[in-house]
Amino acid sequence: MRLRGKKNAPELLANLPNLVITEPTAHKGKWSQVFGNDRPIYVELGMGKGQFVTEMSVKYPNINFIGIDMYDELIARASEKAMAVSERAGDAEQHPSNLRLMRANIEFMETFFEENELSRIYLNFSDPWPKKKHARRRLTHPRFLEKYALVMNEWGEIHQKTDSETLFEFSLNAYAHMEYLMKDISLNLHRDGIHEEHVMTEYEQKFFEKGMNIHRVEVLIGEAAVKQHREAKLKGMK
Hints:
By secondary structure, this protein is an alpha/beta fold. The protein has helices at residues 9-14, 31-35, 51-59, 72-88, 142-151, 165-177, 202-209, 223-237, and strands at residues 20-21, 41-45, 64-69, 99-103, 118-124, 152-162, 181-186, 215-220.
């Protein structure tokens, strides 16, 4: 999705060096320095207008968030939301200090994240690329999953939401192919209404209002995340 009408986007982004990252390769392996702490880093790949990642950064101040997209126009929209939510939260900063927005192509994510640098990846309503010949472009294709596994640490997880039944089926099969542990699989996330802890994306709000089903799954990749989940299940069985 590419927005039009933000002709001043490059200038706007240039004036937000503490929020917008335009040369991510310079920070590979140094993201803890960018945020000034060693807290977990959660990344949304393809953040769109940024509603989800900005709201999450305010809701969870002890987590560092990075929203990634390719287009200046979308980064600009997300930066406006970041400043708005910061103001709404009464934060003296111009934007949430635990949030960064990155202009980058996900194809090359291993060039701007070091091994074991991330704790979670969000895939929210990614392009389903419905044609079979475009399957390799889907963000849950094994070639992308291998990249995610490389840059995530022992607590690494993928959280995916989509309205596309085709993409969801493809994704579940891809996770199974990689022998990843899946949990909390839902074919209709908001069947019983929206949970108060849930943060919605722009697309999600529209789909929910139209009565469309939202599919969701959590995928555990890191060894520590898998171990913790299995131990919790065993404890619950006693």
